[in-house]
Design goal:
Elements: E1 6-11, H1 18-32, E2 36-41, H2 46-53, E3 57-60, H3 68-81, E4 85-89, H4 91-104, E5 108-112, H5 123-136, E6 141-144, H6 147-156, E7 164-166, H7 173-179, H8 183-189, E8 197-202, H9 211-218, E9 224-229, H10 235-245, E10 251-255, E11 269-272, H11 281-288, E12 293-296, H12 299-305, E13 311-312, H13 316-328, H14 330-347, H15 350-365
Helix pairs in contact: 1-15, 3-4, 9-10, 9-13, 11-14
Length: about 375
């Protein structure tokens, strides 16, 4: 490349979470390699400062709201900053960014971070799937974050096989381990007893994450403490449920935290009971830090965790049983954590992800 090539990374949210953290790792990796990433998304989110601290340019666009203003803002960005390619993440971002790319004639790439159509009912579901199929016609490449997701998208007709690229999510292992607090300090930051048996997770408080199942499992684990890092539409319901179950004194609602993974060493076990995932970033972060993970038996978890992982089907009873086994067996926690660390560092490091995206961008731009 004779000079920095400008790529717009368009987000639907700039609040702490897996999507914005993923884009931070992508943009930071691209910047180091000589590209010029500009991250566009809603203003005011806590992650905006993190992007800027990392030397990444940001651009305000209300991609979280349907309407013409976000489209006009993105068109202005593309034309004003010489953007050569637009890469979108999330539904609202995918709509506005792909329309803007179509209007301006630049290539569009869209990453599907999970295909969550089940929450829609009747005509709304049909409308969402029809819109995704239409938008795919204006998309040069659809990036799928797991092989399981690619298979699902192909079955739904959301893209063609020739459009799809599977690029597994990865984490910046070196940055993550460098910033992570040690167990004592992480527990101090979360106001946890140093001797407590701690289960933890970080997720958007959405029904697909099934955090309610985790609260019900906690009721069967009277000596355990649960840490929930995150926020979202289910926050009020989860707090009320904790009170009803009588476990509220043992639940730490930590709120949304930028770089939440720096606190993961406070946990004895990381729990991921989601109903569905694309490829879960928080799980990969926990793996990279050497934590054992108890996860729901879904395709994405099987793909990322490997054959020896303690995956759970069914009720809170099965989840509680798996968690109890790990909480009382330090040797088992150590073995599974070591396996997770090796797998994350060898197969799920952000460098491989950025290399694959860099190759994709170069191919589309003829570089």
């Amino acid at each position: 490349m004779s000079g920095p090539v400008t790529i717009a990374q368009v987000l639907v949210s700039t609040e702490p979470g897996g999507g914005p953290q993923h884009v931070l790792d992508v943009a930071a990796g691209l910047r180091v390699r000589g590209w010029r990433p500009i991250v566009a998304g809603p203003p005011g989110g806590a992650m905006v400062a993190r992007f800027r601290e990392s030397g990444i340019e940001t651009f305000a666009a209300r991609t979280d709201r349907l309407g013409p203003l976000a489209l006009l803002r993105l068109v202005r960005l593309i034309r004003g900053q010489g953007v050569r390619l637009v890469h979108s993440h999330g539904k609202g971002a995918g709509l506005h960014a792909r329309l803007a790319a179509h209007v301006t004639g630049v290539p569009a790439v869209h990453t599907l971070h999970g295909i969550h159509y089940e929450r829609y009912r009747g005509p709304a579901r049909a409308g969402y799937l029809a819109l995704e199929r239409r938008l795919s016609r204006w998309t040069r490449v659809i990036v799928n974050v797991s092989r399981a997701q690619e298979a699902e998208g192909l079955a739904l007709g959301l893209f063609t096989r020739g459009q799809s690229r599977v690029i597994l999510n990865g984490v910046d292992v070196a940055r993550l381990t460098g910033r992570a607090l040690e167990r004592w300090d992480a527990r101090l930051a979360l106001k946890l007893e140093q001797s407590a048996a701690v289960i933890g997770t970080a997720a958007r408080f959405d029904e697909v994450k099934r955090l309610d199942l985790l609260l019900r499992a906690l009721a069967a684990l009277p000596s355990a403490t649960l840490v929930l890092i995150g926020d979202g539409p289910e926050a009020g319901a989860l707090r009320a449920q904790a009170v009803r179950l009588g476990v509220a004194p043992r639940v730490r609602f930590a709120g949304a935290i930028v770089d939440a993974a720096r606190l993961f060493r406070a946990f004895d076990v990381f729990a991921a009971p989601s109903r569905k995932e694309g490829l879960p970033l928080a799980v990969i972060e926990a793996m990279a830090l050497g934590l054992p993970v108890v996860a729901s038996d879904i395709a994405a978890h099987r793909e990322v965790l490997g054959p020896s992982a303690p995956l759970v089907e069914g009720s809170e009873g099965m989840l509680a049983k798996r968690l109890a086994e790990l909480l009382v067996d330090e040797a088992l926690r150590g073995r599974l954590g070591a396996e997770n660390r090796t797998r994350a560092r060898s197969e799920l490091d952000a460098r491989a992800m950025v290399t694959a995206l860099e190759g994709l961008y170069g191919e589309l731009l003829g570089l």
